[in-house]
Please model this.
Amino acid sequence: MEQAAQAPKVWWKRKAFRTTVTVIVVGAVAALFTVSLVRNAQDVREQNLTPTWQWAMAIALFALAVPLTGLLWRTMLARLQPEAEVSRTEAISVQCASWLLKYIPGQVGSTVNKVLWAGRKGINRGVVVITVIYENVFLQVCSLAPGAAVVAAALGPQLFGDEPYVLLLPLLALVPMALVLWRPAFHRAVDVVARKALKRSVPREYFLSTRTTLVLLVGFLLPRLLNAAGFVVLATSVTDVEADEWAVFGAAYVLAGAIGILAVLVPSGLGVREAVIVVILAPYVGVPAAIVVSVLARLCSTVGDGLVAVIYVLTRRTIPKELRP
Model:
């Protein structure tokens, strides 16, 4: 009798706690997103820019890269846990929610969202954590490797003179990433941690084979190509961009984004991403135009996140309430 009387109270406490956390998280994301949007809009207004159709196309391309990444993540999850039934709509919804949670400092919310969803869905949470690691490594490799190669081929000596090897510094991050993409090394590293922390080993089946890794690595190039295309389209609204310069402009954007993620300790102000864009594009369009393009890209990517929020709301409605991210 006593346990029966306490059950409703416990249920209401849990519901109140979940509701409170949801309100806090959503409120924080909305507030930080709004601050970012207002700040970037103000920077663009100071440049006396008039919106064009290129802005709308760039925003759409930036936003579409997120659900596409979600579909690739779903493919990876299906390979590692075939019994997990995740629809395309659900994967897109989970991915969009995780993407929006990047506005929470530290980007912890992105991983936590997928882990909590996996728990409700009955999917192995350890596998989901591993897919999140793979996802981030895939995106970084697909940004750093081709981006640095294109920029080095086009501007290496011009940017760095007698020290073109400076451009290779960001590529040092590819060394540990390559170990993650190699199943024996990644499995060994995770297994050692699991044995010490959880007192159990991690099955080898939780990690991607070499063939699957290579296939997914090619697949994860597609979201980066969308980002690059969006930036090129955006740049054409500010300055003339010749067809033979498209690759360099696109590479500048994805490379700058990857370097910005790696520079976790850089203070606010002019971001690392914008600085890298200016350095790479200045030889083509000059410093003033390069600054304008970098600021405009920051605004449009923020507006694109607003479109991602719309996609999330629309896809979330198709998922059972108890499984919604």
